[in-house]
Amino acid sequence: MPWSREDLAARAARELADGFYVNLGIGIPTLVANYIAPGMKVVLQSQNGMLGTGPFPYEGEEDADLINAGKQTVTALPMTSYFSSADSFAMIRGGHIDLAILGAMEVAENGDLANWMIPGKMVKGMGGAMDLVAGVKRVVVVMDHTSKEGDPKFKTRCELPLTGTNVVDMLITDLAVFSRPTRKNSFKLVELAPGVTAEEVRRKTPAKYSE
Amino acid sequence: MSVATSSKVFADASSALRGVVQDGQTLMCGGFGACGIPENLIDALRDSGVRNLTVVSNNAGLDGVGLGKLLQTRQIRKMISSYVGENKEFERQYLAGELELEFNPQGTLAERIRAGGAGIYGFYTKVGAGTLVAEGKETRIVDGETYVLEKGLVADVALIKAWKGDTEGNLIYRKTARNFNPNMATAARVTVAEVEQLVEPGSLDPDGIHTPGIFVQRIIQGASYTKLIEKLTLRKREERANAVVA
Questions:
Q1: CA distance, residue A80 to nearest chain B CA (Å)
Q2: Which domain holds residue B195?
Q3: Residues of B in contact with A137 (CB under 8 A)
Q4: Does B2 fall in a domain?
Q5: pLDDT digits (tens, 9 = 90+) for B25-42
Q6: Which of A121, B26, B80, B231 fits a 20 to 30 Å CA distance from B102?
């Protein structure tokens, strides 16, 4: 049975390590925060200018001046700091963030990522995605293995406009996990969702990878 | 455009913009979504009737909120932004070819503003290399890595929002309402700041000032604040206390 959204978040959370500074994208990546192992210290960075992002507020404790990059109300923690957008992206671009977990539309076998634009549709913009993939030490992508129409999303090359070239270190889909030790290596299938066979993954994956 | 007055303090947003804003200018406008936007100055800018503006702002407001108000009145000709979702009027004008749009990666936008304010012509960055963002821009390969030349951004006027300010223009921001505001304050010929609390010099801790007064030419205390919350997200009382959300 393929992994659910919650399963994907829980699997991605296993990539966290104690002491990590982490940036989580919008959607499933945001859910990863709920699966941080007890006792593990992980500091979440919000690119709108906050380090040490806390949980959603209780009713009545929301503050319009305190939001995350998804514009949701959040809270501060005792270790929280606030800073400007330029400082925030110095952290991101400057390689000070250990891990980014992002969603995607397409990933290519060479690690290219497309997640911001579909030509012909209204384009909302890339926000901080290009900065994150260019600067964060390790990039983990979480996405469905195929589109709603059943088209593969892990491809020989991306057809959509790129967010970054050769930037994905690990790909977690609802069927499988692909990883590579460095960006000079190609991807290897390292894990299958329960009940999913390597043959099924092969059938739904145009991208080249090793097993 | 001269703003040589002995006092930086103006009575209200409209008088603070008088003689400063003109048709065809480039404006910077602080805020991330609806958080930390100069609400009173945006209203005054709309009421001033100036047109054909190029606006540098991370987002373009929501329908009827923030810069969305200036889209409705068709005062904006071009936006330089990183993300413009959640705005139907923006989408309509853009798809009809009535509005120009330049997307910058969010950090590149912030750094272009920082560079502009700091007198730096441009900088080479990995961000956007090999993507549409790099098209038409000079690139350079250093140690096998491709970098894109991004130019500093400056504006005629910056409209910014702070929490507290003194009559000398020293500013302190509050929580994530800081965002682009302090960077933009440095990058315009005239920076107009609005604050929730305007205080006398000496009231603010000099060690805690985020924007030194030299970057602010005019300041007002905003008449009122809506402080819209875009996405109210709450935690139920019974949820485990260590649940953390980015």
A1: 10
A2: 13-121+152-221
A3: none
A4: no
A5: 999 999 999 999 999 999
A6: B231
